[in-house]
Amino acid sequence: MSNYNRFAIKMGLVVTPPKEKKPIPKAKIKKETKKRAKLNRQYRKEVKKAAEESNLCEVNSPECTGIMEGMNHIQKRSAKNLLVKKNLTRSCNACNGYIERHPKWAKDNGHFISKFKDLENTIIATPKEDGVILIEKA
Ligand SMILES: [Zn+2]
To answer: Residue 127: pLDDT band by 50, 70, 90 thresholds?
Structure first.
């Protein structure tokens, strides 16, 4: 109630006080669409499954801690490639950060390819495979 309304009531200028307005509840904005939420649930399941198979980091950057904490998306994650197994490698958080900060190293070691490249037709060899790291089809 405004000061004027209080004043008007006190002075007998208004008989009934005006109704207090209810505050309008803030609209909740969803963080993700239903479709994306479903995809993310599937993704978390895949990560859990991968962690059960092996919990060793596959990136082995100079800052590696050795234990997987999540997945690295060789091609930056998008709805299209979120669940593509070929695009995922087990990674510790230190390695994930290292990849972000050292794109050339990541590219040279098979941990990063441009999102404009065709993932299906790119052969991504893990560094374990005798020196052959990244071969891109012409
Ligand atoms: Zn690592």
So the answer is: low
